[in-house]
Amino acid sequence: MSRRGPYSKGQERRGEILRAAVEVISRDGYRGASLGQIGRSIGIDSAHIIYYFSSREVLLQEVLRIWDEGNAAQPTADADIFTWMVEAARRNTETPGLVQLYTAFAAEAADPSHPAHDFFRARFTALQGYIADEIRKRQAEGKVASALDADHAAMMLIAQSDGLQVRWLVDRSIDMAAALATEIGLLLGKGDGRP
Q1: Which class would CATH give 71-195?
Q2: 0.85 exceeded by the pTM?
Q3: pLDDT tens digits, one per residue of 100-147
Q4: Most CB within 10 Å of its CB: which of 4, 139, 178, 188?
């Protein structure tokens, strides 16, 4: 029987802190989630959290990464990117605090010194690539107008999706998934508002 070392225990504690942070932020929003509140939810003090995460911003960046992975940040090879985007918008309504964290960090990450700058830059580049590739594929199949600039359309679709999240945070009566599906349908030249 192998003995668990301090590294294993440290990884378990780090995971426990991350899970608690995701739960607290999902419920209370990222502004309402102090290190003390996260720590109290699992019976530790905030100084203990800083032992595992050098700052609140680093912890929040890890929360974003975990949420993004759990939200299927990258579609599978056989997934339709447009359906995936609409489903992600639908899932996001279940975690308003994490959507708030995402939108706030996305704006703050415009500063190259922000800890999440590289995360967002890589995320936007990858997502734009997936969307543009799908548009090009559909253009080759004759399903989308060949005159459409795939890279520009992909960039604008991401902007619309993220803008919808901001609007939804302000007005929860907005159906993000339906609005995004309509925009995708218009982009692809379909009048029925479906990807």
Answers
A1: mainly alpha
A2: no
A3: 988 988 999 899 998 788 989 998 999 999 999 999 999 999 999 999
A4: 188
